[in-house]
Amino acid sequence: MAAVGSLSEIVDTTRYPLADVERPARAAVVDAARRDLAARGCTVLRGFVRPELLESLRAEGEGMAPHAYYTVERVNAYNIPLDSELAQDHPARIVLERGNAFVARDRIPADALIQRIYTDAGFQRFIADCFDLAELYEFADPLAGLCLNVVAPGMSHPWHFDTNEFTVSMLTQRADEGGIFEYCPNIRAPQDERLDDVRAVLTGAGAPPIRRLDLRPGDLQLFQGRFSLHRVSPVAGARQRHSAIFAYTDRAGVIGAVARTRQLFGRVLPEHLAAADVVRGDRLLD
To answer: Which helix (H) or strand (E) segment is 30 a member of?
Structure first.
């Protein structure tokens, strides 16, 4: 692909004028995103990447995918140990199979489109404004700051909650079949796990409403995944599903826990071993 300069050459800045902070069009996009997030915990900015770069976006992801750490494991929706001491009817006792894989940030080229987007200060300011945050920081984690999520045919990313309160992602390659993003908006609250509702989704017994998103490559998704149960449905056909995960936090210096990092990437670095445990601001399991 030809060299790409500024972010304005990657993003459709006619629809999404990231750098023009005072421009009414930017304020309208931000206001619409905030309304969607408040109402449904999710918003999708369609066609965020310029259409002429979608094939480059896909090809870059396909080139990275072989570097993913592949493992199939038994998990629960809270990503806590399966032998945790919980009531017999607790939804964390429902065992799921996680078959998605992650390409770590240190396997993503510095000139990759997703790397250019992730590190751009104007993009970060735009994302902070959409989430109504005063400040936004890149994950200090050298593996999880930016990664590519790979779901191979026959695999899925099962129902789960995110550790972070907000998630930014972009589909880079659709599966031939399946691979649909599904979620239950705000199924739990900071001080209320709402276990009955979560159990109903996991068992399919009178589940609360489940929303399904038809994401396309180049769409930017903003999501509040700590409070909304979500999954990627099983993938079928010959093609993998690829999505870039842009990991940000509202405080500086955040690094993933050792056990969780090893689970996702199959390895840890000295930075993980040296990092102190993060104290959560809520009482939720994860």
So the answer is: helix 24-40
- Tokens at 16, concatenated: 């999404």
| Residue ranges covered by each domain of the chain | 9-80+92-274
Query: What is the average pLDDT score of the chain?
Result: 92
Q: In DSSP terms, which residues pair with 75 in a beta bridge?
A: 96
HSE-CB for 139 with a 13 A CA cutoff: 26
Which candidate, 158, 282, 180, places its Cα nearest to that of 241? 180
pLDDT exceeds 70 at position 50 = yes
Percent of the chain with pLDDT over 90: 80
Alpha-carbon dihedral of residues 72, 91, 221, 192, nearest 10 degrees? -150
- By the 8 A CB rule, do 198 and 118 touch? no
Q: How many helices (H) and strands (E) does the chain have?
A: 7, 16
Predicted confidence at residue 5, as pLDDT, reads 62
The mean pLDDT value for 75-82 works out to 92
SS3 content of the chain, % helix, strand, coil (to 5): 30, 20, 50
Regarding the domain delimited by 9-80+92-274, which CATH topology (the fold level of the hierarchy) does it fall under?
A: Jelly Rolls (2.60.120)
For residue range 159-170, what is the model confidence (pLDDT) as tens digits?
999 878 899 999
Query: Long-range pairs for 11-16 at CB < 8 Å and ≥24 separation?
Result: 11/48, 11/49, 11/50, 11/117, 11/123, 12/47, 12/48, 12/49, 12/50, 12/51, 15/47, 15/48, 16/45, 16/48, 16/126
3-class DSSP state of 47: coil
